[in-house]
Amino acid sequence: MDPKPLLDCFKKYISLTNEEELLLLSKVTYRKYLKSQYIVQQGDICKFTGFIISGCTKTFYMDDGGQEHIILFAIEDWWTSDLGSFIAQSPADFNVQCIENTELIQFSFDAIEELFIEIPKLERFFRKIVERAFVSTQKRIVRNFSLTAKEQYVQFKNMYPTIEQRVPQYMIASYLGITKEFLSKIKSQLLLE
Fold first, then answer.
1. In this structure, is residue 179 part of a structural domain?
2. Which CATH number is 82's domain given?
3. Does a structural domain hold residue 33?
4. 54: which residues sit within 8 A by CB, 6+ positions away?
5. Neighbours of 54 (CB within 10 A)
6. Does some domain include residue 149?
7. Total domain count, the chain
8. Structural domain boundaries enclosing 29
9. Shortest CA distance to 74 belongs to which of 42, 45, 102, 94?
10. What is the reported pTM?
């Protein structure tokens, strides 16, 4: 396992000494998941938060009718988990599933809590990550209310240019809250413009 991408992620927000880096790395686990494997399932308690070394995941809610509602994709250098379940150690509202074979560096709830005591500045790092996730979620809600499906799709492509090449179209449609047929129609219209 190469810890450099994880340590580089931390360095965006905080400085760690060599000793702190070693302590941090002593508390992580490295895990490989296969395509279609679940990292967490609705109703289970999310025991880990993970940093993606390689691969792609989707976070989604399955409604009572069996309809999948994708709320998030995550790729390399992103974090993935059911954050609400992880923080509260309560049953997950969401599923996190691998779209590709995925490698993660994972932190257990207990390990994170220990690290917060031993390296207090890690709390700042995780606060910053959660703040960014919160702001991103708020912006997405506003986009869902204020933009047409076509505008949402264009913005999705601009914000996440590499994801569309890695994710099936029906999943992008689910993320946008439209049918795959409507997404195809939007894409056809954009080609004519």
1. no
2. 2.60.120.10
3. yes
4. 76, 101, 102, 103
5. 14
6. no
7. 1
8. 4-121
9. 102
10. 0.91
